[in-house]
């Protein structure tokens, strides 16, 4: 517990720092940049979309007054059209991106008239996903500036601003409704624990804690997204989301290991190994949650964003692989028993194997499958919330399976680690220790 607290402290500090540095309203500082194209942000507009640009401290490295500043400016372009623009540039049909009819010019520096800043509100009437980019078609000219970009859609008769992309505006409702499912599960589990209160162990309360943490995590994420939807900024509401997400991320692998190795009592043969696994898994989960925080807050076109995304996915999958190891060891321990209680041993072995397969399936569906689905949906589909819904449905099914198979029942043979199992485990531990000596 002390180790978890020490690991939790830097996570909270990083969350607090990052959450106030970024928001859906983007602030970007460009320093002496010579890139011909600088991407900023991406947003799906409706027919009543708006782009606000506030650019200040504009400075060009070349002060020649004869520069053609119409070749420098901001524009919008869809991903589909961008492929054709690149083809035009390659074939020499246009010499500058801003000359292409496939892009929508927002503002060029010729309109500055000697000023070093400008503010503009650009209406977007096409319901498309656009990328905001900056083009610099001047040779050997570096640009410095501070850019504040705000994208939103106007809703209703009162023209309320919706700062969430059109394909994400339903996410707060999806998160909130999903949280109600988890609260319902928690209520059902509390009823089961009350009815079977004489056979309840600590692991059953840990299951309840995990379900409640999932519900609170979704409520905080719904509030976080809702705040961005209304104001364009999280206003610190994301801190609670990151805290609950971290606690859920730590509790889930601990619960899986505890169930897979004999509930709250760890077998002698497995205890040392399981402790070592947890010593690895918990720091990895801390690292994965820090990566999640940074990944959420990094603007979409920052160069190292893909590295953080892949790092988060790899670390998360490694955690689930490590969690599956103690379950596999426990299966081997049960299979080695020759005490004559064939029916009991077979029941335990079958249950362990079922749980092992379900854990692997859960990890595959929620990590190896859902992550690509969410990524693809975010760019190609108008309904990226379907990836979120699939992940939550899989998680609910996994929790329901776990609760059903490991209910607090007096006749649940797996909930009792009998003396015979311990007698078998001790020689296995001795053999393992002797192997280490050799």
From TrEMBL:
Where does this one sit in the cell?
Membrane
**Sorted alphabetically, which Pfam families does this protein's record hold?**
CAND6-7_N, GOST_TM
Which chain regions cross the lipid bilayer? 174-194, 201-219, 239-262, 274-294, 306-323, 355-376, 388-407
Using the record's annotation, list all stretches that form the GOST seven transmembrane domain.
173-411
Give the primary localization class. membrane
**How does it sit in the bilayer?**
Multi-pass membrane protein
Residue intervals of the CAND6/7 N-terminal domain: 28-153
The lineage's top-level taxon is Eukaryota
Keywords assigned:
Membrane, Signal, Transmembrane, Transmembrane helix
Signal peptide residues are 1-23
InterPro entries, sorted: CAND6-7_N, GOST_TM, GPR107/GPR108-like
The answer to whether UniProt assigns keyword Transmembrane helix to this entry is yes
Alphabetized PANTHER family for the sequence = DBJ|BAA84809.1, LUNG SEVEN TRANSMEMBRANE RECEPTOR
Q: What is this protein called?
A: Lung seven transmembrane receptor
Organism for this UniProt entry:
Hibiscus sabdariffa
């Amino acid at each position: 517990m002390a180790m978890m607290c020490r690991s939790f402290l830097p996570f909270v500090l990083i969350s607090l720092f990052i959450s106030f540095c970024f928001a859906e309203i983007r602030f970007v500082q460009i320093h002496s940049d010579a890139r011909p194209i600088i991407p900023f942000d991406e947003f799906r507009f409706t027919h009543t979309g708006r782009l606000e640009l506030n650019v200040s401290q504009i400075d060009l490295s070349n002060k020649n007054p004869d520069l053609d500043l119409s070749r420098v400016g901001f524009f919008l372009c869809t991903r589909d059209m961008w492929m054709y623009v690149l083809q035009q540039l390659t074939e020499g049909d246009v010499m500058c991106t801003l000359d292409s009819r496939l892009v929508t010019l927002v503002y060029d520096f010729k309109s500055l008239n000697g000023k070093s800043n400008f503010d503009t509100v650009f209406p977007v009437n096409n319901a498309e996903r656009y990328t905001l980019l900056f083009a610099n078609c001047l040779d050997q000219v570096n640009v410095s500036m501070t850019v504040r970009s705000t994208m939103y859609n106007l809703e209703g008769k009162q023209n309320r601003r919706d700062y969430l992309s059109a394909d994400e505006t339903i996410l707060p409702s999806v998160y909130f409704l999903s949280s109600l499912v988890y609260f319902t599960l928690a209520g059902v589990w509390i009823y089961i624990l009350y009815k079977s209160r004489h056979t309840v162990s600590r692991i059953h309360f840990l299951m309840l804690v995990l379900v409640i943490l999932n519900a609170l995590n979704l409520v905080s994420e719904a509030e976080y997204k809702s705040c961005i939807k209304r104001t364009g900024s999280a206003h610190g509401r994301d801190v609670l989301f990151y805290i609950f997400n971290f606690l859920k991320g730590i509790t889930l692998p601990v619960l899986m290991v505890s169930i897979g190795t004999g509930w709250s009592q760890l077998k002698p043969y497995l205890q040392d190994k399981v402790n070592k696994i947890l010593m690895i898994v918990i720091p990895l989960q801390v690292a994965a949650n820090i990566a999640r925080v940074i990944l959420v807050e990094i603007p979409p076109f920052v160069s190292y964003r893909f590295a953080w995304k892949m790092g988060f996915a790899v670390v998360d999958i490694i955690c689930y692989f490590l969690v599956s190891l103690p379950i596999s060891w426990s299966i081997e321990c049960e299979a080695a028993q020759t005490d004559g209680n064939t029916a009991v041993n077979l029941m335990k072995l079958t249950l362990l194997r079922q749980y092992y397969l379900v854990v692997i399936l859960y990890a595959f569906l929620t990590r190896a499958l859902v992550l690509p689905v969410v990524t693809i949906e975010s760019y190609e589909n108008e309904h990226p919330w379907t990836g979120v819904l699939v992940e939550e449905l899989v998680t609910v099914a996994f929790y329901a399976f776990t609760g059903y198979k490991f209910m607090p029942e007096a006749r649940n043979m797996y909930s009792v680690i009998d003396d015979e199992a311990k007698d078998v485990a001790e020689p296995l531990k001795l053999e393992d220790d002797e192997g280490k000596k050799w």
